[in-house]
Every structure is written in C-alpha cells, then in structure tokens.
Write a structure and sequence with these properties.
Radius of gyration: 14 Å
Number of helices: 3
Strand content: 15-25%
Structural class: alpha/beta
Strand order of the largest sheet: 4-3-5-6
Largest sheet: 4 strands, parallel
Order of helices and strands: EEEHEEEHH
Distance between the termini: 32 Å
Helix content: 25-40%
Number of strands: 6
C-alpha cells in the first residue's frame, strides 16, 4: 500500500485503475510502480472499491459504498501521483540521495 496526499486528506492506494486511452509511457510507469509497491493494477471495467486510484477517468459503475476512499486524478495531478508513488518506493528513496540537488 502507498499513501497519496490530497489537498483535503490522504488515500491509501491499494489498486491503480487505468483505461485504454492512457498513454503507453504512463501505463508502463504506473504498472511498474504498482508491481514494485505491491499494488493491484486493473482496467476501467472493474467495480470500484476502497483504495482504488483511478487515473484519467471516473468510475463508470459509480463510486461504490466508500466514495471517500477512492481517488481520481487527471491532467497534471497524474504527475504528482507518479512522484508520490516513486517516493513510496524504498529503492527510489535510496537512489534519490545520489541525484543532483533540485533547482531553486
């Protein structure tokens, strides 16, 4: 599980849900992070459940019984989610120590 911070709270991500229109680079990035972090990975035809993070599209089958425990992002929010998921990866945390300092 990985924790994503929102403007008004947090989501404990257990599964990433994408649709078929998600760009290939984004799909492979998110799928790799899901595998690394032990998260589920599914297409948009699934029934929403607590811990879902929907990328680019809202659930067509409704939000389920726990809408406050389901996340949805699109646009630049996807990049922020990818960054937070990478930071949750213990290997990334070690490698980041050797990266160049951030520009100010």
């Amino acid at each position: 599980m990985a924790r994503i911070q929102w403007e008004h709270g947090a989501l404990d991500v257990q599964r990433i849900v994408l649709d078929e229109l998600t760009p290939h680079w984004m799909r492979s990035t998110l799928q790799g992070l899901a595998m690394t972090l032990g998260l589920g990975f599914a297409g948009r035809n699934v029934t929403p459940k607590a811990g879902d993070l929907w990328i680019g599209r809202v659930p067509e089958k409704g939000w389920g019984g726990t809408p406050s425990q389901i996340g949805w992002v699109r646009g630049d929010g996807v990049y922020r989610v990818i960054t937070q998921l990478r930071q949750a990866d213990p290997i990334y945390a070690i490698e980041a120590q050797f990266d160049a300092p951030a520009r100010v």
